[in-house]
Amino acid sequence: MDVFVYGTLTDPATAGRFLDSYEFSRDAELDGLHRLDGKYPTLAPGGSCEGRILSTPALAPLDRYEGVERGLYVRQSLRLDGSGSAECYIGDPEALGVPDEWPGSGPFHDRVERYLQANEVVVTTR
Predict the structure, then answer these.
(1) What count of Cα atoms within 13 Å lies in the side-chain half-sphere of residue 38?
(2) Is the dihedral of CA 91, 19, 1, 35 positive or negative?
(3) 10-to-24, 52, 111, 123 alpha-carbon distances in Å
(4) What are the backbone dihedrals phi and psi of residue 4, each rounded to the nearest 5 degrees, phi first?
(5) Rounded Cα distance, 47 and 21, in Å
(6) Quick one: which of 20, 29, 57, 112 has the most CB atoms within 10 Å?
(7) Which of the four pLDDT bands, split at 50, 70 and 90, describes residue 1?
(8) What is the DSSP string of the chain?
């Protein structure tokens, strides 16, 4: 499974603490979302963000690390290079202490999904 990483998981030492098997396959750029820094990095609508593609057979350890069950981050599938997909973790601005730039109302997960459905967001590898 390919995962676009842009924060602490770009560091092999951090990824190695949570994953038994992984590799960084390519550098990448995410178009349609930009990075915000708070307690931990997250993404917000518009712009672009540099990162890497981390390939791993197991997402459950990453879900635990990113606090998906606690609502800290949501995992979304994004288009990768026009064919295929890469998972991506997007943090809840309120939980991370950054300005909330996500449009609309309702639960954070729902606002992210609506934005991704209505806007072109793609990961391009180099």
Answers:
(1) 16
(2) positive
(3) 8, 7, 26, 15
(4) -80, 120
(5) 32
(6) 112
(7) very high
(8) -EEEE-SGGGSHHHHHHH-SS-EEEEEEEEEEEEEE-SSS-EEEEEEEEEEEEEE-S--HHHHHHHTTTTTSEEEEEEEETTSSEEEEEEE-HHHHTS-----SSS-HHHHHHHHHHHS--EEEE-
| Each residue's pLDDT tens digit, 97-123 | 999 999 999 999 999 999 999 999 999
Residue ranges per structural domain of the chain = 2-125
Q: Judge contact between 24 and 53, C-beta under 8 A.
A: yes
Spatial contact of 43 and 91, defined as CB atoms under 8 Å apart: yes
CA–CA separation, 71 vs 50, rounded Å?
24
What is this structure's pTM? Answer: 0.96
Cα-based distances in Å from 107 to 5, 15, 50, 60, 86 = 23, 29, 27, 23, 23
| Beta strand 73-80 pairing with 122-125 | parallel
Q: For residues 106 and 112, is the Cβ–Cβ distance under 8 A?
A: no
